[in-house]
């Protein structure tokens, strides 16, 4: 029978279970590298995902492996970590156990719950079928299929009205993801697909960005929101603000009486915390997130921590934003707290250090808010690009992403314009590829 | 309404319909670039696939876009081609029409049917669930998920017998694909996954290659088959020859009385022609391929041609092999014949030029048969590598593939070890990631 390469971790040291291999979970595991603990990192997937570039996979700029790396590989040299690919069914705080789908259970001395958020339709789950969201690599590949297939359907469609409908795109939600998707999609229609079709002119595609609030990128200063809007419009995106969506169906997005026609709709509007939080038996906020104490533990159970998008932390009267740097900082802080507790001390309160806020819009278009320093346009775009390549996990990924981007920059081409899967999830219309 | 960038192709010139964007179809389209015809290339996918490297996607060495390029993009400058992404339901030779799924139809003056082959279970379709095959990018991603998930299941499995079962792999079929898969899988188990697991030793995985005939790589000279076998065994593959599989189920492969245990089985044994051939109404051979006349047209309908794996052509008493170079040559020949007919002439008989036969086995292991010149081992491997990179479609793909391979060579790592999809198709066992 197979034998482990070395004795399993000594059972007598405290057991730390980390659920979720995102930024919070991974940085917490790393923060405990030299602590006298054994760690089990549980994730339902086998990889850490560099979420900030997920929209690039959806828009065929990068391939899935460019922005993901196997958790086992990242942590292979950290001998006190076991990576377990499994789905967590529930947490039992009283018994200090994590129940896995399939019946297994893991006892823990310390638990970090960092399963993040998923997209939410605010109780309108019927919209999901018409307006898929973007949270996982599988979401991204499904979205890529939808976006690219829409142009194929338009090309094949004899009826002009139907054809035009296939070229109507709407993105719901004017946050960073919505802005990135809208800008990139407009670029694909105007440049990437040029000369490739014979019956349609892809550049006539209409890309609409629909935001319920008064401005796009609400987390940025108003001036940058205004700049972002202008840059989007320059790329050919129609920006609709103060436009709360009241319905989404096969015809498009309904704004009260008004219909914004769109055969292809993408949901970038809302997120809700992972449902696992409910099994903690503590009160949650409206978005289902877990209000945590200053040291990121939960009131009732000081040995259970919550970090990343699943946690809601107030700081200076404002919630800490659900961004990668915040998740990394929380993960590191939880590791620090556990180390302190093991040493007989107590943790310090978590303090979020805001290093700035970036959003990209499209080629040579981005906005950067570094507090005192705010800028947009080409410089901001280069700043965004360098920062994101720098933070990518793994040297190889940096290399391939830079290669893909350099290629895309000079050729206007996109590396990953491959339609995968059966296309069963593409909207109604002539039967697709099989 | 959207207008085509230029007038649609003049309807008065002869219409050539090509079904299938593989090597035969794509090379035929290119061969007609300057002919006075309008061409419609129909494929159910949006991309041309470099099939010879498909096993690398299945074994996580390359990502899907590395070996595929959108047909529209490849042909964007050839103005007499329209690419249509659609599934062909049937051919009506008498009416000279191609019926598409969804009701549309395309009339043709000349037709090239080049839809290739799919994997076949010789009437044992129940085996498909236990032993998936490898023909499309989706097959490759599903197979990647199965192979990588098996190690994850083994790591999570407390029962030693069950754990060992998850580390039993069998590949059925000793042709080039089976040999490539077996060799690469052994390499992954012994090198790529080293140090990444805590409870299992991936190197203890057993990889068995099961071939019904007396030797692997039957299309090669016996001496090279023998070398291939030795190289496989050096990589840690158990090679079983004269071992016809009589059954495949959840326990493994049955060879008559004997059971070769395997929780993960891959089918690389048999291919059958695409079922579309049946709608031609002409006699087919046992594998469902279309026997063609010397000019690759079919007897009853001289304006209908069949090329690539779908056609069976005898030459010097031996069938022309189902390999990429043969498909390209057939495609070019069909183009030549159509050009000759348009000029009032007649076609010449097709002659297959065999430039040699390559098969890779694993790191520094391959066999090359150039007729007079036969060699194996490191030199053969480098020869195979250069040849395949050279023939890859698109400069960018060459670049990224070379990068991925260089990386893999020095680090033993594999770029694309990302498990995508729900894993619904993984074999029975503890519930997987969702």
Structure description:
The structure is a homodimer of 434-residue chains. Chain A has 434 residues and is α/β, with parallel strands linked by helices. The first copy, chain A, folds into two domains: 15-119 and 271-342, FAD/NAD(P)-binding domain (3-Layer(bba) Sandwich), CATH 3.50.50.60; 125-269, 3-Layer(bba) Sandwich (FAD/NAD(P)-binding domain), CATH 3.50.50.100. Helices cover 29% and strands 24% of the residues of chain A. Chain A contains ten helices and 27 strands. Chain A has helices spanning 23-31, 54-58, 71-74, 137-156, 160-166, 176-192, 222-235, 324-342, 378-391, 395-411; strands spanning 15-19, 38-43, 47-49, 68-70, 81-85, 88-92, 97-100, 105-107, 110-113, 117-119, 168-172, 206-210, 237-240, 247-249, 252-255, 258-261, 264-267, 271-273, 290-291, 297-298, 301-306, 311-312, 314-315, 318-319, 357-362, 365-370, 373-376. In chain A, strands 5-2-1-9-21-20 form a six-stranded mixed β-sheet, with helices on one face. Chain A has a four-stranded parallel β-sheet with strand order 13-12-11-17. In chain A, strands 6-7-8 form a three-stranded antiparallel β-sheet, with no helix packed on it. In chain A, helix 1 (23-31) runs parallel beside helix 8 (324-342) and helix 4 (137-156) packs antiparallel against helix 5. Chain A is globular, with a radius of gyration of 23 Å.
Topology:
Two copies of one chain form a homodimer.
Chain A: E1 15-19, H1 23-31, E2 38-43, E3 47-49, H2 54-58, E4 68-70, H3 71-74, E5 81-85, E6 88-92, E7 97-100, E8 105-107, E9 110-113, E10 117-119, H4 137-156, H5 160-166, E11 168-172, H6 176-192, E12 206-210, H7 222-235, E13 237-240, E14 247-249, E15 252-255, E16 258-261, E17 264-267, E18 271-273, E19 290-291, E20 297-298, E21 301-306, E22 311-312, E23 314-315, E24 318-319, H8 324-342, E25 357-362, E26 365-370, E27 373-376, H9 378-391, H10 395-411
Parallel strand pairs in A: 1-2, 1-9, 2-5, 9-21, 11-12, 11-17, 12-13, 19-22
Antiparallel strand pairs in A: 3-4, 6-7, 7-8, 10-18, 14-15, 15-16, 20-21, 23-24, 25-26, 26-27
Helix pairs in contact in A: 1-8, 4-5
């Amino acid at each position: 029978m197979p034998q482990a390469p070395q004795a399993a971790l000594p059972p007598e040291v405290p057991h730390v279970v980390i659920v979720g291999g995102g930024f919070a979970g991974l940085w917490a595991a790393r923060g405990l590298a030299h602590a006298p603990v054994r760690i089990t990192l549980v994730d339902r997937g086998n990889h850490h995902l560099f979420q900030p570039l997920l929209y690039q996979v959806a828009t065929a700029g990068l391939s899935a492996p460019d922005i993901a790396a196997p958790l086992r590989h990242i942590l292979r040299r950290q001998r006190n970590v076991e990576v377990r690919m499994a789905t967590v069914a529930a947490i039992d705080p009283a018994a200090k156990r994590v129940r896995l789908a399939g019946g297994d259970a893991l006892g823990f001395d310390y638990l970090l719950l960092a399963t993040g958020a998923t997209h939410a339709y605010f109780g309108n789950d019927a919209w999901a079928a018409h307006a898929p969201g973007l949270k996982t690599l599988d979401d991204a590949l499904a979205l890529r299929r939808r976006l690219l297939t829409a142009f194929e359907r338009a090309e094949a469609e004899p009826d002009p009205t139907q054809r035009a409908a296939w070229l109507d795109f709407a993105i719901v939600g004017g946050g960073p993801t919505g802005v990135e998707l809208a800008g990139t999609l407009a670029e694909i229609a105007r440049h990437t697909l040029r000369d490739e079709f014979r019956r349609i002119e892809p550049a006539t595609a209409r890309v609409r960005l629909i935001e319920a609030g008064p401005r796009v990128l609400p987390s940025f200063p108003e001036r940058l929101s205004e700049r972002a809007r202008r840059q989007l419009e320059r790329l050919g995106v129609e920006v609709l603000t103060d436009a709360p969506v009241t319905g989404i169906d096969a015809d498009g997005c309904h704004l009260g009486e008004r219909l914004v026609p769109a055969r292809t709709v993408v949901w970038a509007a809302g997120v809700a915390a992972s449902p696992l939080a409910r099994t903690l038996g503590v009160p949650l906020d409206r978005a289902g997130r877990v209000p945590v104490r200053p040291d990121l533990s939960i009131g009732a159970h000081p040995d259970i921590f919550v970090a990343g998008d699943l946690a809601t932390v107030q700081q200076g009267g404002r919630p800490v934003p659900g961004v990668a740097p915040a998740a990394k900082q929380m993960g590191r802080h939880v590791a620090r707290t556990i180390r302190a507790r093991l040493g007989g001390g107590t943790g310090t309160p978590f303090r979020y250090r805001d290093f700035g806020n970036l959003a990209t819009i499209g080629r040579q278009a981005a906005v950067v808010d570094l507090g005192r320093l705010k800028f947009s346009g080409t410089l901001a775009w280069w700043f965004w690009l360098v920062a994101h390549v720098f933070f990518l996990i793994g040297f190889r990924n940096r290399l391939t992403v830079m290669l893909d981007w350099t290629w895309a920059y000079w050729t206007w081409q996109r590396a990953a314009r491959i339609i995968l899967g059966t296309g069963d999830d593409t909207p109604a219309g002539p039967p697709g590829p099989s």
